[in-house]
Amino acid sequence: MTRRTPGRHATAYFTKRFRECGTAARAKNEKAYMKSALRFFGATMPDVRCAARDYQVAISPIAHQALVDIATTLFATDYHELRNAAIALLEREQKTLTTSDLPMLLSFVREASNWAHVDWLATKVIGPVVHRDNKRPALLRQWAKDEHMWVRRTALLACLDELRADGDFELFEELATPMLQEKVFWIRKAIGWVLREVSKKRPALVRGFIRRHRTKMSGLTLREASKYL
Fold this sequence. Notes:
The protein is 69% helix and 0% strand. The mean pLDDT is 96. The chain has helices at residues 6-21, 24-34, 45-59, 64-75, 80-92, 102-112, 115-130, 136-144, 149-157, 160-165, 169-176, 185-199, 203-213, 219-225.
C-alpha cells in the first residue's frame, strides 16, 4: 500500500472534521455571502481554528517540507474550509517560514482572489514572514506594482500588524500613494483600513497623510482613515 503524503493525510483529516461539524444550511449561506465558486462544508471559523490546533498538536513537530506539502495540497482543493485550514496551519507555524516560501504564499493569494483568504494570508502569514527579512522594502515595493490586484492589496495589508505598533509608516505611504486613485474597491478599502488602525495609537501620522493626500483620496478611503480621528 502506498503511504499517504502529509498533504493527503491532512486533507482526509480536515475533510472528516468539517463534514462532521458543518451544516448544509450554513454552507449555503456562506457560499452566497462569499459569492464564491468554491464548495463549502458549512464549518465555522472556530471549527477551523480548533481543527488546525488539534492537527498541529497531534503531529507536532511539523517539518517544513511537510508543512509546504500540506498547505499546497489543501489549497489545491475547491473547498473553502480546506483552504482555511491551510492558512490556519501556516499562521500557527509561521515562524518556520522564510522568504523562500513567499512565492508559494503569493501563489495562494493569486489562486484565492477573495478577501477572506487573501486578508488572512497577508496579515497573519505573509506579513510576519516578510518583516523578518531585510529585503522587506524591495519586496513590498515590487508587490505594490503587481498587475494582480490581490497582490497589491497584500502589499498594503502585510504592513498592518507592524504599523499598529511602531512600523515604517513612510514605507506604507510610499506604497499606498500611487494606489490612491485606483478605482478598485478592495484597494481603496485596504488603504483606509490600514490608516484607520494606525490612527488608534498614532493619530498624528494619519492626520498628516490625509493632509498631504486628501485631494487624491476616495470618499471610502477618507471615511475609513478618519473614522477614529
